[in-house]
Amino acid sequence: MAWLDRDPSGYFHVCFRLGERKFKRSLRTKNERAANGSCLRLEENVRLVESGRLEIPPAADIPAFLLSDGKLSGRPEIPKSTTLGKLFIEYCDSLPVDSLEANTLRVAKIHMRHIERFFGVRFAVERLSQQELQNYVGYRSRQTGHRGKPLSATTIKKELSTFSTPLSRLAKASKRPARKPARAPRRPEARQRKRSANCSSKQEDDGTPGCQRELAVVRNPTP
Q1: 6 touches 43 (CB < 8 A)
Q2: Residues in a beta bridge with 23
Q3: Which alpha helices (H) appear in 3-83, and where do they start and end?
């Protein structure tokens, strides 16, 4: 038999007996209809256990097991997210002394600050998607450098490369796929341009003028 108990805050708990033991578990809901549904489901699973049609694994969390129709043997573990700020701090702290030249590390930290400014230090890196990386490329491509000129494709690619290193380490440590681009996302103003005037005007076999080429400022990522 199972029954409901409501605490002063309005949340429902389900109570039941199994053998000689009494159990009580919060349903984390104030909705009486939902609570009644969970109570009936648990009561049915108790009957299945008592009839031998459902077996509770050793050391299982019994309320969780019965409330989940035997799908959970314990309380679900929610993986902790890693913030962008924490990712960069832990990466810098993990670098062996003198593993990078002072100037290289200084430039990498500048890249990290640009990335943090766009995404925010509390951004959960597990949520990172290809589209968000593309948005970052678009954002940076509209900005200017210290001399007032538009940022070069090389600079943006270096920033993405700086970002990909700690992401790869995190993925390896947590044994999950790295959320990084295999190649840098496309820069919005990628376009074609002509070579210098002294370039040969001879055409290739396919009819494309030899003095023209595609300027892939930042190449399109592999799907």
Answers
A1: no
A2: 16
A3: 32-51, 62-67
In this predicted model, what pLDDT tens digit does every residue of 19-65 receive, in sequence order?
889 999 999 999 999 999 999 999 999 999 999 899 998 888 899 89
3-state secondary structure of 58: coil
Assessment of whether the complete model's pTM goes beyond 0.70: no
Distance CA 31, CA 10 (A): 9
Express each pLDDT in 97-146 by its tens digit.
888 888 999 999 999 999 999 999 999 998 888 999 999 999 999 988 87
* Residue recorded with tokens 């159990």: 23
Retrieve residue 109's tokens.
């930290």
Tokens (6 digits) for 189: 């103003």
Rounded to whole angstroms, the Cα distance separating 124 from 121 reads 9
Rg (CA), the chain: 29
User: Of all helices (H) and strands (E), which one includes residue 105?
Assistant: helix 102-119
Contact 41, 69 (CB under 8 A): yes
On the question of pLDDT at 203 being above 50, the answer is no
Cβ atoms within 10 A of the Cβ of 102, count?
A: 8
- How, if at all, do strands 21-26 and 12-18 pair? antiparallel
Q: So where are the chain's domains?
A: 2-67, 84-193
Burial (CB < 10 A; 0-12, 13-18, 19+), residue 119, is buried
What is the domain class of 84-193 according to CATH?
A: mainly alpha
pLDDT of 96 above 60: yes
Tell me the two tokens of residue 98. 């003198």
CA 5/CA 69 separation, integer angstroms? 21
